[in-house]
Each structure stands twice: as C-alpha cells, then as structure tokens.
Amino acid sequence: MKSSKVTIPALLEKKQKGEPITMLTAYDFPMAKQIDDAGVDIILVGDSLAMVILGYDSTLPVTMEDMIHHSKAVSKAVKRALIIGDMPFMSYQVSIEKAVENAGRFLKEAGCDAVKLEGGKNVVDKIKAIVNAGIPVMGHIGLTPQSATALGGYKVQGKDLESAKALIEDAISICKAGVFSIVLECVPDELARIITQKVNVPTIGIGAGPYCDGQVLVTNDLLGLYEKFIPSFVKRYINLAPEIKKALASYVNEVKEKKFPSEQYSFKASKELVNALKEWESQN
Ligand code: KIV
Asked: Which among 23, 20, 77, 81 has a CA at the least distance from the CA of 48?
C-alpha cells in the first residue's frame, strides 16, 4: 500500500486507468486512523455526523462549528487519505461570500484538503466562487439529503427519463463549474454509468451501482454501529452494535458481582506501605 498523500490528480489518474476509488466517512480521531491505515483513498467528514454521531433525525441541524470540531479530530489522525469537509445545510446556500468563507474554514481551521456540497445547476455559482478561491470542491447530486423534503423523502432519484436527463445536465454543469469529483447518491445503475462516462472527473457512488469510478459508504452503517435505519444499498461488513452491547453487559455484571477489578487490574501495595498504613489506622 502506498503511504504518500492522496492527491486530486492521483484520483483522476485512477479514473483514467479504471482503478476503483475508495471513500468512507469519519468523524473522530480513532476511526479516522483505522480508515486511513486501511488504505482508503478519501475520508469524508460527512454531515451524516448529525445522524450517526449527534443523534439528530436528519442532517439539517448540524452546524459549521460541529463540522469544524469533528474535522479537526479527523485531520489530526490522517496521513494518507484526501480529507473532505462536508458543507452543512445553510453554510453555502445563502450567498457566494458565505459559501467561500465557510469553505475556507474547512481548510484553514480544520486541516481538510477539499469540501463537498450538494446540488446541481442551482449551486454552480457557489462552486465556481469556491474553486476560484483555490479550494477544491466535490459535488453531490441525486439524492441530496439536505433537500430530502423537497425531493419527497429519501428516495431513488432519476427514475424516469426526464429526471434522469436533468441529473445528467446537473453533472455536466457542476463539472464545468470546476468540481474535481462527484458523489452520485441513490440513482439507478445505468444512469450512474452514463454520468460516469460523460464527465471527466471521478464519480463516487452510494446506492448508485457498480459503474461509478469509486464507492462511498457511511462507516457507521458498514460497521453496524448505526441501528436506527439501514438503507437497502448498505452492506454491513460487520455487526458491531450487538458485540458492544455484549461487552458492556459483561462489564456491568462483573462490577456488580465484584469480579472486576481482579488482582490483575489493581496496584498491589508494598509490604512496607501495608504495615505503615496499619499503624496509621490503629492511631486514627
Ligand atoms: O454526509 C455523508 O455521509 C455523505 C455521504 C453519504 C456521501 O454525504
């Protein structure tokens, strides 16, 4: 496994060579380190933070401060992967100035290499301005969770010819605006194939089938750590939540039954200290 830092040109080269790109989310130091050590190319500090870590029901409430706080922890752990900070709801929609300023914070304060934002034609002006400021941008089209209500819920997008064509146009527009890569979320496999062929930047799929240039999943989903809801496109590579529950129950029982801490997990007092303490106890 290469240990040099992943660069944007290296990702482009992977697309050209047909080498799949790997991407996962991380929100804290220990998990980011595990993911980086596993050789994952891109680590996204996703706004999914809101749901899988902070306990909200959607991604909307997460703030810039939350995102910067967690991105800092991730960037301290990562040596190889490209780190992307996910721009939260209302951090880029309001004005071009606000979009550039907030994008800059991910690089300046949090140690990220790039930012991601959701949307197609409607965010082209924001993407252009952020890219012009020298900040690499990853696009995100298809199911864009920040606008899930407007899209009618967490549903597959581009299911008919009209909406499929609109997504192809969105992909081309944000590509022209300067994105270095595009996340395609919840779109039919054939549509993802066509978009991947039509754009000259890597596409990273989530629920978008096998024809994308790379794949991304929410790490807590693939590890079985998020139990509230499992999207049908998620493959659980391990189911950690029940294992954690088992371990915690054992700890609780052992403390209650006075089995923990045993000698192995205690600091034995020296004979001198035992005698001195006994004498002190008898006088007090
Ligand atoms: O926030 C997130 O985790 C994401 C991924 C689903 C791509 O945007």
From this structure: 23
CA distance 50 to 54: 5
Residues 160 and 94 in one domain: yes
Ligand 1: residue whose CA is nearest its atom 2 = 46
Q: Quick check: is 36 in a domain?
A: yes
Domain boundaries, position 269: 243-283
Cα 68 to ligand 1 centroid, rounded to whole Å: 16
Q: Is 43 in the pocket of ligand 1 (CB under 6 A)?
A: no
Determine what percent of the chain is predicted with pLDDT higher than 90: 96
Two tokens, residue 207 = 């629920």
Structural domains of the chain, count: 2
Q: Is 183 in the pocket of ligand 1 (CB under 6 A)?
A: yes
Is residue 185 annotated as a catalytic residue, yes or no?
A: yes
What pLDDT sits at residue 275?
98
In which band, very low, low, confident or very high, does the pLDDT at 3 lie, cut at 50, 70 and 90?
confident
